[in-house]
């Protein structure tokens, strides 16, 4: 498979269609594909199910998509970083599926590994377990959690080579590698693209097999907020 190197984020983001399930990397705004999210805010796709640790922040990242009314459902583990999420939920304008963070991560990993679901003790006996199957294993109760998969994944990496192998920068790695394995189509936003063979095999976290297209990042996160690279 040959990876496509794209110069136009707006054109590539049309891979996302109305009603799609989209995985978006990031923890807070760190490791978020801000250029791709910005393009998505300018695309007319709606009724989206977003699988992401959080829904950005108020007016930032995925928070803009929320304000635009383009989200049908959010699946994640940390929604309080954006208080508007609770407002939209209470008004019946947004569905939420809250998962403990370890469960959330494992559900994505399972989706990429071809595993339909797994049993965990986390959340047993809580409201999060309502409506879910349980099973006794060796005298203890476990909760069945289904795998998470997506139509499109938007991930953020530090470097890529022209073949599509990805390297991440410190904690910006977060959910990006597992999301790259769990979607039908993967768009990677990167700071730098180098020639094939320039990356050490030991530093590659996402093999090119998972990546369909690359795009250079135009927006970055600084102490002052999200700014244009130029």
TrEMBL record:
One of its GO terms (molecular function) is CoA-transferase activity. Keywords: Transferase. Pfam families: CoA_trans (PF01144). NCBIfam families: pcaI_scoA_fam. PANTHER family: KETOACID-COENZYME A TRANSFERASE (PTHR13707), SUCCINYL-COA:3-KETOACID COENZYME A TRANSFERASE SUBUNIT B-RELATED (PTHR13707:SF57). This is 3-oxoacid CoA-transferase subunit A/3-oxoadipate CoA-transferase, alpha subunit. It comes from Alteribacillus persepolensis.
